Amino acid sequence: MSSTETSCKIRKKESQMKAILKRLSRNKLSVIGGIILLIIIFCAIFAPLIAPYKYDVMDPEHILEGPTAKHICGTDNLGRDIFSRLLYGARYSLALGFISVIVSQFFGIILGSVVGYYGGTLEDVVMRILDVIQSIPGTLLTITVATVFGAGFTNTILALAISHIPGSARNTRALVLSVRKNEYLEAADACNCSDARKIATHILPNIVSYMIVGFITATAYTILQAASLSYIGLGVQPPTPEWGALLTSARDYMRDYTYMLVFPCVFIAMTVLSLNLLGDGLRDALDPKMKR
Fold first, then answer.
1. What are the mean pLDDT values of the chain's consecutive 10-residue runs (292 residues total)?
2. Nearest to residue 109, comparing CAs of 254, 32, 212?
3. What is the Cα–Cα distance from 257 to 259, expressed in whole angstroms?
4. Residue 197 domain-assigned?
5. In a domain, 108, yes or no
6. What pLDDT score does 7 carry?
7. DSSP classification of residue 225
């Protein structure tokens, strides 16, 4: 390939990216969601610099104290600053969401690409197995897998990832089927491209935009599931300041000290909402029908 052709392709990709960003910027809700998400990620990364206290520092003189100038989100039953624990907890909650979805998408994309491309008996067998797995309600499946692995940060990631692989594989298969008969694949056949190369260089790049949207949406749902697992004792355990674990700590005090429950719920809701808003905006921006 000549340098001229390479530069043309680069310019074409840059123009496509500019067009996508321009369409995305028109969606004000999506922009707001992206800004909120960036702020939350920034706070998680720089939590040691932003948090006024260490997440495990106890203040016996201010146990179960409501929001004040010194503790803007109040303190818990051990006198720990809730705002600091929320900032540190963002690290765990975001990591649970992003890492588990990355793992599930990795294996789901491989499985979905293979069965979608080859079809036949392999597709029938794999899809029937996935049908059986997906007949189990998602939350129940996650709880079952988490029970097998046990509580803990790493085990929670494994439980969430395994329970989401079937859905990722099914979505990837549907996307592969939508492009499998396109002309550029026939041209690749004429050039004697291997199946692996056709999948990696021709199929996946043409469905990656849809996978990005699916990744963002799945992350929002996974963060909710991670918090739910921690709340029922199957996820991250206290004293780790994960948002679901904070809800667990507040469970026995929610009637008299409601703020212990409200602030973690607000952080979870803001994160999930921002991801959903960003995902909706990206879906519209990446949809070819939205081009003008």
1. 50 65 83 94 94 90 90 92 95 94 93 87 88 84 87 90 90 85 68 74 79 90 91 86 90 89 94 92 71 45
2. 212
3. 6
4. yes
5. yes
6. 54
7. H
User: Structure tokens of 65?
Assistant: 């104290």
**Domain containing residue 46: CATH number:** 1.10.3720.10
Residue in 105, 74, 101, 46 with CA at minimum distance from that of residue 259? 74
Amino acid at 13: K
Radius of gyration for the chain, computed over Cα atoms and rounded to the nearest angstrom: 23
Is residue 17 in some structural domain? no
- ∠286-289-291 over CA atoms, to 5°? 70
pLDDT, residue 292, reads 43
pLDDT at 101: 94
Domain hosting residue 78, numbered range = 24-290
Query: How many domains does the chain contain in total?
Result: 1
Task: Name 213's Cβ contacts closer than 8 Å, sequence gap at least 6.
Answer: 279, 282, 283, 286
Extract the tokens encoding 247: 């809800």
Partner residues linked to 81 by β-bridges: 75
